[in-house]
Amino acid sequence: MTKPSMPNEYPSGSFASGVPKPAPLALLDELQRARLEFETSSDARSDHGRDWWPLSIADVAVGRVPHWPGVVVKPRSSDEVSQLLRIASTHRIPVTAQGGRSGVLGGAVAPDGGVALDLTKLDEVISLDEISGHVRVQAGVFGPELENFLNARGWTVGHFPQSFDLATVGGWIACRGAGQLSNRYGKIEDIVRSLTIVLANGDVIEVGSNAPRQAIGPDLLSLFVGSEGTLGVITEATLVARRRARFEERAAYGFSSFEEGLEACRRILQRDASPAVLRLYDETESQRNFGHANCALIVLDEGEEYFVHATMHIVGEECAGATVLDVSLVERWMEHRNDVGALAPLWERGVVVDTIEVSGSWAVLSTMYRSVVETLASVEGMLAASVHQSHAYVDGACLYFTFAARPEDNATLLYRRAWDLATHAVLASGGALSHHHGVGRNRARFVAEALGPSFAILVAMKSELDPLNILNPGVLGIGGVPW
Ligand SMILES: Cc1cc2nc3c(=O)[nH]c(=O)nc-3n(C[C@H](O)[C@H](O)[C@H](O)COP(=O)(O)OP(=O)(O)OC[C@H]3O[C@@H](n4cnc5c(N)ncnc54)[C@H](O)[C@@H]3O)c2cc1C
Fold first, then answer.
1. What is the CATH architecture of 125-243?
2. Does 475 contact ligand 1 (Cβ within 6 A)?
3. Residue 472 CB neighbours (<10 A)
4. CB of residue 184 inside a 6 A radius of ligand 1
5. pTM higher than the cut 0.85
6. What is the pLDDT of residues 217-235, one digit of tens each?
7. CATH 3.30.10.20 fits 25-121, yes or no
8. Could you give the CA distance from residue 173 to residue 207 in angstroms, rounded to a whole number?
9. CATH for the 343-442 domain, from 3.40.1010.20, 2.60.40.1190, 3.30.300.330, 3.40.50.720
10. Contact, 115 vs 96, CB < 8 A?
11. How far is the CA of 175 from the centre of ligand 1 (A)?
C-alpha cells in the first residue's frame, strides 16, 4: 500500500538558508549500538517537524520548516520503543510519538532538536479472536490496512474518521478520536479494550483487559486514551470488532433552520434510535455540500435489518415536519467523506481556514451554535463561518465549525484570534473544549481553564509518569509553555 502523504510539499530551495545540526553524535551512537533504525537526512527531519495543523501547512506553503527534529527513529516493536525511551531519558531529549501525523492541532509536530518517534513501522495486525471479536494490532497500522484484514474475514472495527487513510490506530487512541459511523459503533474509547504502553523510563506495561469490563479501581486504560503522547507511547492495542453489517438504509431531510434540525436529532436520540450517521448541516454548508438552500440532515443506518427498519422508522416520524430530500444526498456525502484535499490549497492562496469541533448538551447547543458562528463572523477579515452536527448522543452532540478568513496582514494573529474568541464562546456556553480532535499545541492554552481545578490531577499524573518531561512536552497543556 502507498503510505498517505502530507498535505503539501516544500517548494524547491526551501532549505537553502541552512539546516540545523542533527541530534548529538553521542545519542546517534547509542541508537546505532541498540540497532535502532533512524534517519538524519534533511528531508526526513523537515518532514517530521510538521503535521496537518493548518499552521504547519501554511509554513510549508512558503518554504518554512516549522521545526527541525534532531533525528527520526523508526522502531518495529515495543522493545525497540523501550530502548529508545531509555536512551532519550539518559540524554533528556524530548520525544514526540508520531503515527500518520494527520493531527490537526500540532500534537505530532516534533520540536527542534527532539526525537521524532515515527511509529508507522509497527504495522502488523497481530491476531483476530473470532469468538470474542477481539483484534490485536500494532499501533502504527493505518485504517485501511486494519479494515482490509478484518473485512476479508467478515469483521469490522467500525472506526471511520474522515482521515481514515491518513491516521493510525495509535493516533486514534492517543487523540480520543471519533469515526463518522460512531453513533452505531462507538467512539474509540468504546472500542479499545487493552493497550501495551511504553512509559517514559522504558518500562512496558499492559492496561485494560480482554474482559468487557472490570471493577478494579479507576480505569487505568482511560488514562492513556487521549493522552496525546504525553504520558506513554502506545505500541499495541486490542480493539473490539463486530460482524460486518448486512443491511443498510438511507434518508435525507431539509429543515428551515439549524435549530429545528437539532431538535429533530435530539428527539431521535432520546427515543433510543441511534443511526450510524446523523449529520445536520447549516444553510451555508448545505449549499456548499449539496446545493440545497435549507438545512440538510443526512441519515444512514446499517446492521440487522429489523433494527435498521425500526431506527429509520423513528427517524421518519421525528422528521415528519421536514421536507423529504433526495436520498442521493447521502451517496454524495459517502463519495466525498474521506476527501482531505480542501485545506492546503486555501492556505497556499493565503486564506486562513480551520475547523473547530466541540460538544455540548442539548440544553446549550442552540445557544452555543449561535454564539460561536456570530463570534467568528465578527472577526475582521472573516469570509465564512459555518457549522454542522456530526455525532449525536442521547444527551447532546458534537458541533463542528468551519471558518475561512482573508487576513489584512498577519495570518497567524488572525488565526489565533479566531480560535481564542470561538473557544471562549464555547466554554462560556457550557460546551467542551474538544469532541474528537484533541488538544495538541493549538488548544494547549485553554486546557487549564477548560478543566478548572481538576487540571492539577493531569499535571500530577504527568510528573509521576514522566518526571524528566521528555514525552511531547507542551502538548495537552502540560510540561511546557503553551503555544
Ligand atoms: C482531513 C482530516 C480529517 C480528520 N477527520 C477526523 C475525524 O473524522 N475523526 C477524528 O477523530 N479525527 C479526525 N482527524 C484528526 C486526526 O486524523 C486524528 O486525530 C487521528 O486519530 C490522528 O492519528 P495519527 O496516526 O495521524 O496521529 P498523529 O497525528 O501522528 O498524532 C496525533 C497525536 O497522538 C500522539 N500519538 C500518535 N501515535 C501515538 C502512539 N502510538 N502512542 C502515543 N501517542 C501517539 C502524537 O504524539 C500526537 O500528540 C482528521 C484530520 C484530518 C487532517
1. 2-Layer Sandwich (3.30)
2. yes
3. 32
4. no
5. yes
6. 999 999 999 999 999 999 9
7. no
8. 13
9. 3.30.300.330
10. yes
11. 6
